[in-house]
Each structure stands twice: as C-alpha cells, then as structure tokens.
C-alpha cells in the first residue's frame, strides 16, 4: 500500500490523535470498536491515511456494505487467544505416552499454565469453526475487500494443517482428551502461529469496518466520498465532526489552485478550514466523512500551518516560525507530489503592512504549484482583493455582521470576499469605550 505523506505539525494542527486547546481528537470519533486489537487497527488507519486509490475504494465499499457478519468471539475471548498465542511455556509436540502419564496429576492438581493452554485451544477451535461458517455462507456478490479476506481465510483453513481441526466436531459441551489438546496446542502455538495471526487480523479488520459502518449510520456520515485522479475538489454539506449543531456548508475549488478564505475574527475561518481538511484526511483513510457528498483528488500529501508555537529555546519568534513552516511545506510540495496545503492566517506574527506584502509574495509562489491545492485564510482583505481577478484563485468568506448592535455570526460560507469589519466594534463593545 502507498501511504499519504504528512508530518507531526499537521497531526497536531488537526488533532488527529491528541486534542489541542480542548479540541477532541479525530481518532475519538471512531475508537468504539468491539475489541482492543480492533481499536489499535482503527487507530492505525486514522494515523496513516492512504494514497492508494484501489485500497481506499475497497475500504469504503466494505464499510458501506450492510451485511457484515458478527464477530466470531467476544472481546474477552479474543484477548485470551492473544494471550495464549504469546504464551511461550510448555510448548512441545504431542506424545500419547506423556499425555496419558499426566492425566492423574492434572486431575488432582490445579495447573494455571495448563488452564491457559486448554482454554486457548478450545477458543481457537471454536473460532476456526465460526470462520468456516463464514466461507460456506458467503454471498455471491460481496465487496472486493471482503472477498479478499474470505479467500485468505479459505486458503489458511483448507490449505494448511488447520483443515484437520475442522474435522473435529465441536460445540460448547465438547471435551478434548489431553492428547488432542497437546496436539492442537503445538499446531497453534508453533506450526501455524503466523496463520492464526493472519486469521485474527481478518477479524480485527471486520471489527473496524463494522464499527465505521455503525458510526456512519448513527452520525449520518458519508461512507463513499468520491476520490478521483483529477484535481476536482468539492464538498456538499460539510461540517466539523465535533461542533454541535454545526452550520452545514457547501464548497468547491471553482478555479485555479488557491482558495482564499476571508472574514472577521470569530467568524469560523479556522474551523471551516479544519472541517474541509479533516474530510479529506478521513476520505484518504477510507473511513466515513462528515459530509453529504464529496469529490476530492487523490492526494499524495497533506500539510497545514495552523497552530505554530514560538520557540524560546531557539530564540525563534512566531513570525520566524511561520516563515520556516511555509518554506518547509513548499519544499515538500516542490517534489512534484499532489498535495493539499492549508495556511491559516499567514504571518499573523508581524505588523499589518509586512503581513500584507509577505502574503502577496507567497501567493505568487503558490500559483506555480499547479499540482497542489492551497486553502489560505486571511483577515487582511487587501491581500485577497489583490488577486480578485486572478484566475489562479477562488474566494470564499464567512458571514459576519453587526445587526442591531449585536455581532451576528451564522458561520455560513459564501462565495466572494468579505467586506465585514467588526474588530473595532468588538473592542468598543467589550471594553465599554
């Protein structure tokens, strides 16, 4: 698989695994799996989005499929199997004489190690029979990823010594002899350990997909956003996944490769940028997205500059940190990759005149990266107006106005450049000037 390139700063800006400034982590939206290992796999999917169109589509279609089977065992049982398979004591080939010789000793003396072996063996036999049922009950038309998983299960169950275990009749009352337990134990923990690990990975993938499907239905997420090879980029009904009663917005990259977002402070520019970027991130994970519908390019990289820290240790000002971050991002985009780059209020760490001139200069550079999309927010309206007739740019703004001496901010996204100037009014209102 090919993974999408990103970096630590982007993960921090988007709160992918850890919340920043009281924000919820994106991962918390989906970490509701039925198993611990399923949770680890879900976290891996979220932390490492793909740039693999085929695998993204496979994940989407399986998650959207409404006929995923139940897990063969519950969380505690699967955890016990994991513990048993990692248990390295008393692994030896089965021997009839030795098994018979220890019968009386095992009857009169409790052996915790033996309990682990006996229960682990029985749980795996039960798991194998459930997986065999998956194979025999498979529908004719199924998503490709599920077919791939079923084919893997088929090859392992019927192409290895595990097929002999399936010949063993089994139900909840089945009792195995010491010899059978010893024989299966050696098979499971030694001969076919890696095969069993592969079967467990299938179960955890099922857990991840079942969880994503359930959450998509509960939260009305789109399970099949369209990821395309072209540079088409549009969303309908996008919201930030953690904003309550969020305003639904539509947006599209109508022209060029740069979209400038204007609007007053507190109008919601940063939240909207994050909502769009998180939608792209989740789409590249193959997971459901908080939109009604979406078309986005298959990107090779996502980079952001939103919450940059000062560096006291290096004596680096916020303005210098912004300059270095822009340089770092452009160097990565300059390698010819198709990237989504988000720059939230560039050069806020300097005076208005310097910020305007620096933003205009950077915007001229961004125009050269036709293979990338740049989402740039600014409260410097003169910067946006400098490119108003430039075909490389499109424009959106967040609505905000003073109405009946009140600050009204509906968080609606509109095409064009904002004319709202509410900063001075807010200062007077709050400071009672």
TrEMBL record:
It holds the Pfam family MutS_V. Keywords: ATP-binding, DNA-binding, Nucleotide-binding. GO terms for biological process: mismatch repair. GO terms for molecular function: ATP binding; ATP-dependent DNA damage sensor activity; mismatched DNA binding. SUPFAM superfamilies: DNA repair protein MutS, domain III (SSF48334), P-loop containing nucleoside triphosphate hydrolases (SSF52540). Residues 256-432 form the DNA mismatch repair proteins mutS family domain. PANTHER family: DNA MISMATCH REPAIR PROTEIN MSH1, MITOCHONDRIAL, DNA MISMATCH REPAIR PROTEIN MUTS FAMILY MEMBER. This is MutS domain III. It comes from Bacteroides faecichinchillae.
């Amino acid at each position: 698989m090919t993974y999408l390139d990103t970096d630590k700063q982007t993960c921090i800006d988007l709160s992918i695994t850890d919340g920043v400034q009281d924000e919820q982590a994106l991962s918390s939206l989906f970490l509701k799996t039925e198993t611990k290992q399923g949770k680890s796999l879900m976290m891996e999917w979220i932390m490492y989005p793909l740039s693999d169109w085929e695998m993204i589509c496979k994940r989407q279609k399986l998650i959207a499929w409404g006929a995923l089977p139940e897990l063969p065992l519950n969380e505690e049982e699967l955890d016990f199997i994991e513990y048993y398979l990692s248990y390295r004591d008393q692994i030896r080939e089965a021997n009839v004489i030795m098994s018979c010789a220890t019968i009386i000793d095992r009857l009169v003396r409790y052996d915790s190690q033996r309990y682990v072996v006996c229960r682990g063996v029985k749980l795996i036999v039960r798991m194998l029979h459930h997986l065999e049922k998956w194979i025999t009950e498979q529908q004719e038309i199924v998503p490709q990823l599920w077919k791939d998983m079923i084919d893997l299960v088929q090859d392992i169950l019927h192409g290895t010594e595990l097929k002999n275990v399936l010949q063993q009749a089994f139900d909840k009352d089945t009792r195995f002899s010491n010899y059978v337990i010893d024989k299966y134990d050696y098979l499971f923990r030694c001969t076919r350990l890696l095969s069993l690990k592969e079967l467990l990975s299938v179960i955890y993938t099922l857990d991840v997909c079942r969880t994503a499907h359930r959450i998509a239905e509960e939260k009305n997420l789109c399970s099949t956003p369209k990821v395309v090879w072209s540079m088409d980029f549009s969303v309908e009904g996008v919201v930030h996944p953690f904003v309550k009663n969020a305003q639904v917005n539509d947006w599209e990259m109508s022209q060029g490769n740069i979209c400038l977002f204007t609007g007053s402070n507190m109008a919601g520019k940063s939240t909207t940028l994050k909502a769009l970027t998180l939608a792209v991130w989740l789409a590249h994970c193959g997971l459901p997205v908080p939109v009604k519908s979406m078309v986005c390019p298959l990107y090779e990289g996502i980079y952001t500059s939103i919450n940059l820290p000062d560096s006291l240790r290096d004596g680096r000002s916020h303005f210098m940190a912004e300059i270095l971050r822009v340089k770092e991002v452009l160097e990565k985009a300059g390698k010819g990759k198709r990237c989504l780059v988000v720059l939230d209020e560039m050069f806020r760490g300097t005076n208005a005149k310097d910020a305007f001139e620096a933003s205009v200069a950077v915007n001229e550079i961004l125009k050269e990266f036709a293979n990338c999309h740049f989402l740039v927010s600014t409260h410097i309206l003169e910067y946006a107006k400098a490119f108003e007739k430039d075909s490389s740019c499109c424009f959106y703004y967040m609505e905000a106005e003073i109405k009946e001496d009140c600050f009204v901010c509906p968080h609606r996204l509109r095409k064009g450049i904002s004319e709202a100037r509410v900063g001075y009014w807010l200062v007077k209102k709050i400071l009672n000037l």
